[in-house]
Design goal:
Blueprint: E1 6-7, E2 22-28, E3 31-39, E4 51-58, E5 61-62, E6 66-73, E7 81-88, E8 91-97, H1 98-101, E9 103-109, E10 117-121, E11 129-132, E12 138-142, E13 148-151, E14 165-166, E15 191-198, E16 201-207
Parallel strand pairs: 1-5
Antiparallel strand pairs: 2-3, 3-4, 4-6, 7-8, 8-9, 9-10, 11-12, 12-13, 13-14, 15-16
Amino acid sequence: MKEFIKGANPYMPLWEHVPDGEPRVFEYNGEKRVYLYGSHDTLKTEYCGPDQVVWSAPVDDLTNWTCHGVCYTSTDGSILYAPDVVQKGDTFYMYAAEAKGSRIMLATSKNPAGPFTNPVKTELAFDPGILVDDDGRVYAFWGFCKQYCAELNDDMATIKKETLRENVIKHSITQWSPDDGMDDENDAFFEASSPRKLFGKYVFIYSKR
């Protein structure tokens, strides 16, 4: 028997705008839901804003969205770009891109809807995506016009220096790209790292230019 999942487009109210939404599926209190995190576009004259909101919906009914409100506010009032949220154990970790992505803060919560508190500065850079593997090891991927990745220490904020890799995917040819001979005209990395593990296979989603 076919199983149908309800959905709609647009899936959020027309008064809401989350320009850089990052979705994750988490099971919490026995229910699986899609959680969408992103910068709340409140400044009107600039892209994104100084706080982030979270919406969620049951995985089997993507027409039934709930707004959980603001889940994180930047520590200095600066503009936040796309976050990422992962779960390890019973804790949810938000990687918040403050100062337009130039400073990555790590905040935590016991609830996937937040609030995310106790922020600490990480060693990561622009637009990180995080993967918690089945064995509990944690990997970070980040970069803008040049791609980096590394395994994280147990603090989830610092990298294991010996695991740092550059240009696992060659980078785009842009005015911001380094002239290091590691560029590619076709399927090269621009930004928006998003690692996943699906059915035992590692998948890396990114944007190219």
